[in-house]
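Backbones bend. Shown next:

***
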Amino acid sequence: MVKDLRRLALASLAFAFLLSPLAAARADWAVKSLERQPGAGGTIEYRRYSLGADSDREVELQLALFSSKSASLRVIDQPASGRRLAEVMSGDNFLAGVNGGYFDPQGEPVGLLISGGKTIAPFRKARLLSGVLAARPGSVEIFRASEFPRQRSWREAVQCGPFLVDQGKAVAGLDGERSARRTFVLTTTDGRAALGYCEPVSLARLAKILTALGPLEVARALNLDGGSSSAFWCATKEKKVSISEFKKVRDFVAIVPRSDR
């Protein structure tokens, strides 16, 4: 009888251990606090979220939110420059910015890169490069790579991935183990867009977090180059929020007033 009870206890512990990763993956994230500040010029809004789930620590996420009616995106390519994001952002009429897409060890961009209407690097078919951020006056969109209309005239574009959110739902099958600093771009169901940064989390957790920002409803979200490349900068009316990259990156994505386009 004692042996049977011990076997039952061990089996229960083993079952609980197997379930714990599933419980963490299914945990419901919720906003614990939210700081909101108008951006410089009133064109964008800076948001800093603290989110938590029962089985996870609280995570901080920051957004620079804007409407394409009043602002647009600019891709800044810097093939021979070692300037960091904060330095670049302080030199023009930029409202916010993040690091951009992937690049190889020689610093060459990996995947489609368009800056100011000029194609710097071509579109590529690769599993990781599953989405494209594209912008032109009055329009900021995130496409699946398979649906991207390459025949259209885009002024700015970055191909990256993986896709995090689609049709308002977290994408299935994302890595849930490796945590790293993350930068991303998203569009909302009410027609706005945002550049964002999240402190170290896995891709799967970030996808879940982005679907828990209610009442802000994320329609689509695309991961940008993360880890040591991650950088975020935003000018608010009160201060400049700046998180620096750890290494030189090839390109940045910035928010600019529509009058600048």
